[in-house]
Each structure stands twice: as C-alpha cells, then as structure tokens.
TrEMBL record:
Residues 195-387 form the GMPS ATP-PPase domain. Pfam families: GATase, GMP_synt_C, NAD_synthase. It comes from Stappia albiluteola. The keyword Oxidoreductase does not apply. One of its GO terms (molecular function) is ATP binding. The gene is guaA. InterPro entries: Class_I_gatase-like (IPR029062), GATASE (IPR017926), GMP_synth_C (IPR001674), GMP_synth_GATase (IPR004739), GMP_synthase (IPR022955), GMPS_ATP_PPase_dom (IPR025777), NAD/GMP_synthase (IPR022310), Rossmann-like_a/b/a_fold (IPR014729). This is GMP synthase [glutamine-hydrolyzing]. The lineage of its organism: Bacteria, Pseudomonadati, Pseudomonadota, Alphaproteobacteria, Hyphomicrobiales. It catalyses: XMP + L-glutamine + ATP + H2O = GMP + L-glutamate + AMP + diphosphate + 2 H(+). The active site is at 78 (nucleophile), 168, 170. Pathway: Purine metabolism; GMP biosynthesis; GMP from XMP (L-Gln route): step 1/1. CDD domains: GATase1_GMP_Synthase, GMP_synthase_C. One of its GO terms (cellular component) is cytosol.
Length: 512
C-alpha cells in the first residue's frame, strides 16, 4: 500500500491512477489528516503531491515528520520536493524561476528511479509547473537530473530511499513518467504489483459495508454507465438493502428505458422502481424553447419525482451516486478541511442536500475508463459498458425550439438509424459521442412525384478525450450518404439531413 499525501494539486488523482496502473493499491489523504492516516495505514511508501502553496510562506503545509523517520521510501513531486527539502534541512527560493509546460531534463546519475528507463547523459521531455525551486539540498541528497530552470530537477538520498522531482511524472506530457512511478512503487518500495480491478471490487464492497452497516440505500439510475456500475457494485456488497429508482423522463433514446429495466430486474435481480414520468416531464416542457429553462425544469422535476418515490420506499438513510473523479474537483483548503466543488452539468446536484442523506459514492476515485473496466469486471454487457455519454436532460436538448411527443418520436427513430449505421460500419468505439438533432426548421423536398415539407435532421459525431474539447468526426462521404438516405427513407417527418462540422470550441458538443 502506498499513501499519497495531497497538498492540493489539480492532478493528485493522476498519481493514484498511475500507481493503480502499476498494480499497487494507494490511498490519497489531504495533508491535514496525513499524520493519523499514516499511523493507521502503515504504508510501504509515501508520495507527496504537488500543490499551490509556497514553502517560503509562513504556515505553508508540511508532511508529517513521522514519514521521514519510518525507514520507508518517500517520493516528493513538485511542491512535495520543496516541502521535503524544507523539512530535511535544504533551502527553497520563491518566485522568479517559473517553469511552466514542457521542459527537458538531463540525467546526471544512475538511480533506481531511472532504472531501465533513463540512462546517464540522456535528455528527456518532462512537464514542469512551478514558481519556487530548491536551491540547496538537505544532507545526504545528490542531484540525479537537472533542467535549465531547475538545477535540482530530480534528487535522491539513495541510503534513506528519499526521492524528489520538480517535474510531474504523473501527467501524460512526461512521456516516461508512468515508468518512473512504476520504478518507485515496484523496485524501490517493493510492492508486488498484483492489485487489480478485482481487488478494487472487493475493497470497495468492504468499504460500502463498513459505511452502510445494515442501513437502507437508494440509488438513482440514469441509464448511463456510472450509475449502473455503482448500483451493481453496491448490490453485490449489501444485497437488497439497496433499492434503485429509475426516473424515466421519456427523453431516452430508442428502447433504452426497457434495456435498463430488463438488465436490472432480469439479469441482476436488483430491486428496481421504474417510474414512468414521461407525461410529467413532457407536459412541463411543451412549448419551452430556452435551453437553460429546459435543463432547470428537468432537474427540478427529477428531484421532485425521485424524492416522492424515495418517500414511498421509506427509511433509507443513504443516497448512492455514480460520481466519478472528473465530476469532483477536490481542492485542499489551507484553512479548513478539503472542500468539494461539483462541476456543472450535474443535473441532480441539489438532491443530496435537499434529501439530507449521507452519500455513498464508490466510484469517486475512478476515471471513466476505469469505471468501464470495473463494469466489465462486474459482468455488465459490453454494449452497456462501452456506451457513449448521454446528457441527463436527454433528447430534450437535441430538439431545439420546443419539444412535442411527435418530434421526440421522429428524433428517436432518426437517432436509432444513425447509431445503427455507425455500429455496422464499426465506428462506434472510435467516436466519443454521436447523435441526431431534430431542427425546428422545415424545408421543401420532392419524394416520388410529390412535394414534401418536413423537418431537417442534423447529425453530430465528435472525437474527444474528456468532453472538454472536441473535433467533429471525419466520416467518409459514403457513410454519410448511406445514413442520410436511410433516415430520409425510413423516418416519416424528415426530408433533409445535414452534418455538423463544428469543433469544440467554438461549438459545444450538444446543440443546446
Ligand atoms: P457540451 O455540449 O457542453 O457537452 O460540449 C459536453 C458533454 O457534456 C454532456 N452534457 C450534459 N450532460 N447534463 C449532462 O448530464 C447536461 O445538461 C449536459 N449538457 C451537455 C454532453 O453530452 C457532452 O458529453
């Protein structure tokens, strides 16, 4: 086990992720509670994260002294290097040596940290992000690599097995970083590397049991991967103490609601309340054209319907959510405890406060691809696990200019044909998200010998890593032509198809 002490870097979770990828279990604790966590956990090694503070300021955070006296390896990253130096008798200088972004370091000495990765005298790309820098080393340390802006880019006290780097090995812009971290946890710390998603599953179940005891838990299913994985995991842990509530707002894609219900009821045998609230949602949305009002209406109704169902079930003290790490920016506040900010798009963000229930969030530490891996581990069907992201407000925001049941029907059919063609062409997994949009515009066409006056359907497909930026997918024209022809022939109400070639920015992925 590895203990990661968080000094508030935006990328601390990536350290944990790299350690997991090396097959080693790790836990992140904020620096304020590091001392007790260290004594409880008895880790085989400690990693100190980066952070926004400056060791030259009064009251800036430090790692507990005990970690340096325990005879275990310690790795400091960025601020972690600086605090390590400040604590062990070196010196750190503030400002004026800022290095942000790509930098090159030169390896000066052989070290187990570089074993099999970097040789003496070679230069390598790393990612830097620091204002302060170390100017004098504590006793016992030697410089093992330098960069132009950081003469102490990597340092080591091999006897005590203390290592520190000014750059960020956890980010992908340090191409060899993952291998350096692997060297630290395997070679230096001696961890076996046999931790897997199967171990995560067992650990997570134990944590859920410990948190929940014999209490009752309710979990909202959205039809997406995250809430499904959370629900299946929790059900494995506590069985029928869990009840799932699926608020069906009537804005799902073709057959999707049925699939969710059948998967949970028939395949997993998990208690599920299926609330068919389509009329409530669609009646409230009818005639509404403002996208933000649509979102707010859907969010508010969702909470109301969910709350009413939860009351009927009665007696639940816990609310389970499939929150992932990217949904949570956990920043360490230097005055109080860690504070949590939820990113936007969290449609049901108000639910926990409103219902005054404790949260069960077993996926909080995971990234999307790790949740998918866990989903596979739990036996969720591949088609479910690999699904494109789908927005909480569903088709309502893919039907600009006011929704009606008839328009939703048309959109659902066009979308199903489009996705079918994408799957047939083997393109589904190469695309981050693909969907049809029904425009509130009718145009003239000719079919057979008759004039038509029907809706325009826009097709969208993007590639993306995280949904923050995106490029439109570059289909070949044959594919587009095939999809368009099928949609126009098979869907009554559409006589024209266009393809959206906007990237994000300046566009967004959804049209509303
Ligand atoms: P945009 O359109 O902002 O979308 O580029 C980025 C990602 O977020 C999804 N999205 C939403 N998800 N509620 C959600 O749960 C929303 O209101 C919402 N709006 C957009 C979108 O599908 C894409 O994956």
């Amino acid at each position: 086990r590895i203990l990661i002490i968080d000094f508030g870097s935006q990328v601390t979770q990536l350290i944990a992720r790299r350690v997991r990828e090396a097959g080693v279990y790790s836990e992140i604790v904020p620096f304020q509670s590091a001392e007790s966590a260290f004594h409880d956990m008895k880790p085989k090694a400690v990693i100190l994260s980066g952070g926004p503070a400056s060791t030259t300021e009064m009251g800036s955070p430090r790692a507990p002294k005990a970690i340096y006296d325990a005879g275990i390896p310690v790795l400091g990253i960025c601020y972690g290097e600086q605090t390590m130096c400040a604590e062990l008798g070196g010196a750190v200088e503030a400002g004026n040596h800022r290095e942000f972004g790509r930098a090159y370091i030169e390896v000066k000495e052989k070290s187990p940290l570089f074993e099999g990765v970097w040789d003496i005298g070679t230069r390598h790309q790393v990612w830097m992000s620091h204002g302060d820098r170390v100017t004098a080393l504590p006793e016992g340390f030697r410089v093992i690599a330098t960069s132009e802006g950081a003469p102490f880019a990597a340092i080591a006290d091999e006897a005590r097995r203390f290592y520190a780097v000014q750059f960020h090995p956890e980010v992908v812009h340090t191409p060899d970083g993952a291998r350096l971290l692997r060297n630290f946890v395997h070679g230096i710390a001696g961890c076996a590397g046999d931790w897997t998603m199967a171990s995560f599953r067992e650990d997570a179940k134990a944590r859920i049991r410990a948190q929940v005891g014999d209490g009752k838990v309710i979990c909202g299913l959205s039809g997406g991967v995250d809430s499904a994985v959370a629900a299946v995991l929790i059900h494995e842990a506590i069985g029928d103490q869990l009840t799932c509530i699926f608020v069906d707002h009537g804005l799902m894609r073709m057959n999707e609601a049925e699939q969710v219900v059948s998967l949970f009821r028939n395949h997993y045998n998990i208690p599920l309340v299926h609330v068919d609230a389509a009329d409530t949602f669609i009646d409230a949305l009818e005639g509404e054209t403002d996208p933000e009002v649509k979102r707010k209406t859907i969010g508010r109704l969702f909470i109301e319907v969910f709350e009413a169902e939860a009351k009927k079930i009665g007696g639940a003290q816990f609310l389970a959510q499939g929150t992932l790490y990217p949904d949570v920016i956990e920043s360490v506040s230097f005055t109080g405890g860690p504070s949590v900010t939820i990113k936007s798009h969290h449609n049901v963000g108000g639910l926990p406060e409103r219902m005054n229930m404790a949260l069960v969030e077993p996926l909080r530490e995971l990234f999307k691809d790790e949740v998918r891996a866990l989903g596979r581990e739990l036996g969720l069907p591949e088609a479910f696990v690999g699904r494109h992201p789908f927005p909480g407000p569903g088709l309502a925001i893919r039907c600009p200019g006011g929704i009606t049941r008839a328009k939703l029907d048309i959109l659902r059919q066009a979308d199903a044909i489009y996705l079918d063609e994408i799957r047939k062409a083997g393109l589904y997994d190469a695309i981050w998200q693909a969907f049809a949009v029904l425009l509130p515009v009718q145009t003239v066409g000719v079919m057979g010998d008759g004039r038509t006056y029907e809706y325009v359907c826009a097709l969208r497909a993007v590639t993306s890593i995280d949904g923050m930026t995106a490029d439109f997918y570059h289909y070949d024209m044959e594919f587009l032509s095939r999809a368009a022809t099928r949609i126009i022939n098979e869907v009554k109400g559409i006589n024209r198809v266009v393809y959206d070639v906007t990237s994000k920015p300046p566009g967004t992925i959804e049209w509303e």
